[in-house]
Each structure stands twice: as C-alpha cells, then as structure tokens.
Amino acid sequence: METEVLTPEVQEGFDCVYNKPDTLTDTRFHYCPGCGHGVAHRLLMEVIAELGIQEETIGVAPVGCSVFAYHYMNIDMQEAAHGRASAVATGVKRVLPDKYVFSYQGDGDLAAIGTAETIHTVNRGENILMIFINNGIYGMTGGQMAPTTLANMVTSTSPYGRSTEWAGFPLKITEMLAMLPGAYYVTRQAVHTPNSVRKAKKAIKLGFEYQKLKRGTCFIEIVSNCPSGWKMNPVDSNKWLEANMLTMYPLGDIKVPVKEGQGE
Asked: How far apart are the first and last CA of the chain?
C-alpha cells in the first residue's frame, strides 16, 4: 500500500501544531525508540531558536549516547573526550566569554569518569550551562551499572540487582553540586510527560538567560528512560521511571537564585 503524502492543497484547513526549528538538522536521530535524548535535544534547540542565539551558542558533547549530538544540533559544536565536556566548555567560555556555552552529558560521563571535572567546574562557578541526562545506566555500552543506578536495579553487570553493600549507594550528584558556592541555578526535570517537557524547557531557557548575569554555573539534570538498557518498551519504561527513578531523584528546583534584597 502506498503512503499518502499530504500536498499543500490537502493541508489547507489544517492547523500547524509544530515546526522543526532551524537549529535542528534534517538528520534522523539514532536514539532507540522512546529514548528521552531526542526530546531533550529538541527542547534545547527550540530554546536556542526562540532566544535567537543560534549564531552565539557553542555546545560540547562527550562520549556516550550523546556522542553524535553534533549531527543533530545546527550550531557550533565541539567534541570532548569521555568525561571532559565541562572542562572543554570551560576553556571555550573563557576564550569566548560573550558566547552561550553548554555541555550535554550522560550519567556515565558526568557522574563517573568525569566526576572530578564536574565538581571543580561548578565549584569554580564557570559561567556555563551543564545539561545532565540521568537514565541510571550505561546506555551506550551495554546497559552496565552506573553511579546513578538504583539500589536493587538489574543491569548487565548487576544481574541480581545493585547491592549497596558491594557497590555503594546511587550518587545524587545534583544535590551535591547544589551545595557548592559556584552553583547559581540547579534543578532536576524530566521529559516523560507533556507537563514535564514544558517544565524542562522552561528550565533550559532560564539556564541560558542566567548566563547573561555571569553569576555562576547553571546545572540541569533531566531524569530520562533507557528502554533498551532497561529491557522495557517505551511505555513501560516511562511508568517504571515515574514509580522508581523519581523516588530517588525527585523533580524540582534544588537551588535557585536569591532575589536582590532577600539576602542569602
């Protein structure tokens, strides 16, 4: 059966509900069906388009599921070694202080091999936006246990569930970073429901707008699913995320800028 293509004549009378922004390329996402990376990419590029800063923005993507972000984001992009995205973003921002700079990192990158870079970047208060995708697993390399893997969660390297006695507890790195004086805006959002998507987009917009103030690092964690790594279909993975991930990683602002006149 041939697929009917909507011609301009057929489209008359329909309301356009979405237009892909110019900040996204025409390259199809390689992410697994139902993965939250595609939604996060779209939100990020929508905000950049709406703020009119496409020519003024530089993104940094390291190794991980986000390694091919430069194929999709129609802005200046720089690849970084595994775990070093925040360090590279720091260098870019210091050389080009008037540019909007962000890193886009997963939990295996930001909270494992890149833990030191992450902590010291925020502690110095580097004037960048860090976007942290947390799906509680190593999604790219085979579904291994990550620092953010939940207690008793089954992965390819914890087939009987994560033992906190053997592997320690899940790392709540976002709360840790919020305690650092260099952190200006720290929030945790998600993209598994329409309402969550709207809140995540608002947070990303704030993260870019706060760069103008030069007050410190903005850090946005996005709790996401990994249907392939979790061995679930997309619908069930979103349900599991809400029932399990959000218990350990509750959504909402963790550190917000203090309004003038209110003190610390």
From this structure: 65
